[in-house]
Amino acid sequence: MAVSNITTSRTYLTRQLGELNDLLASKTTQLARGKVGTTYGEVGDRRLLDIQLTQKVSMIESYQDTITIANLHLQTSTMSLERLEDIRQDAKSALDTNDFVLQDDGQTQTQSRAKLLLNEALNILNTEVAGFTSLAARMPFRIRLPRSMPFWKGRTAGTG
Length: 160
Prior knowledge:
- The protein has a two-stranded antiparallel ribbon.
- The protein has helices at residues 10-33, 40-43, 47-94, 109-125, and strands at residues 128-129, 132-133.
- It is rod-shaped and about 115 Å long.
- The chain has a domain at 8-38.
- Helix 3 runs antiparallel to helix 4 (109-125).
- The chain is an all-alpha fold.
- The N and C termini lie far apart (97 Å).
- Strand 1 and strand 2 (132-133) form a beta hairpin.
């Protein structure tokens, strides 16, 4: 604020108090909003720098979001692959080729176990993480077992 004239007249002092009050209100608004001006025109020569810095901050934030999502996908994929390997080992160790005793549901214990492990593997593959499955396919891609005929039906002693 420039000092125009030093005088003790009442009109001068009233005008000075009004200008100081307006300046205080403007500075209070700037402090509350955290901005120098309400428009880029009020910012002055720094407006181009302000726009460029705001753009760069936005780009950095979007890169950070992308990195976070990519890390989440990698961690989830790693866990899924580890569990799929465990399922493979469980299925291999649970395989009993000499199991011919049928349970109440018409399946052998080996068949029931294989079906459970297959369903678990499919559920792992269908797990959604940020709009993608574990295999990075966009949703609503789903892998499903056919419901019409269970895999053990249709085989007889001589056909299979």
